[in-house]
Description:
The structure holds two protein chains of two kinds.
Chain A: E1 9-12, E2 18-23, E3 34-39, E4 46-49, E5 63-68, E6 71-76, E7 85-93, E8 98-101, E9 105-109
Parallel strand pairs in A: 1-9
Antiparallel strand pairs in A: 2-6, 3-4, 3-7, 5-6, 7-8, 7-9
Chain B: E1 3-7, E2 10-12, E3 18-25, E4 34-39, E5 45-51, E6 58-60, E7 68-73, E8 78-83, E9 92-98, E10 102-103, E11 107-111
Amino acid sequence: xxxxxxxxxxxxxxxxxxxxxxxxxxxxxxxxxxxxxxxxxxxxxxxxxxxxxxxxxxxxxxxxxxxxxxxxxxxxxxxxxxxxxxxxxxxxxxxxxxxxxxxxxxxxxx
Amino acid sequence: xxxxxxxxxxxxxxxxxxxxxxxxxxxxxxxxxxxxxxxxxxxxxxxxxxxxxxxxxxxxxxxxxxxxxxxxxxxxxxxxxxxxxxxxxxxxxxxxxxxxxxxxxxxxxxxxx
Lengths: 110, 113
């Protein structure tokens, strides 16, 4: 069982918006940056968001990140069939001195 | 541009050993702490270990503590993971990462008799 809690799945129609939550505690999300990763089937995870809300170059602004207290959220607008993938949140836990990941959320485009 | 390339994976019998390597380029390797992360077939991401800059601090997931050892060679820009007493449940793709942000493409480790 992951320390960071994500919903197992979310879905929406093309063009719509989805949000994925990532819930933690004060020792991890509450006091550390959050990253988000997209994993397409059979490929390595790809960084979508780092430092809570920053996008690496090449990541479209349809993807956004935010953090409030001990929770973080990934938003995807203008949903496309190519966005069907697993999405993970990740952060550091200061008490454990360890990295943490959410269990992953499968995004389905209806 | 950050570039990380893992190598050293393969098929090994239970109880065996492997040493993974990660070649880093595109950044000042010695300035960053580095991690190993793995993903078992059909499962999510699992953080395995980290090493601080200057190798001052290391830590491991409970699942590998006492069996795996992380190290680095800052002169060669290389990160290592020595894996001993391997178990079937260690079968996974292993990724090296700069902090938790920049990742390599991974190397497959299969533990099977």
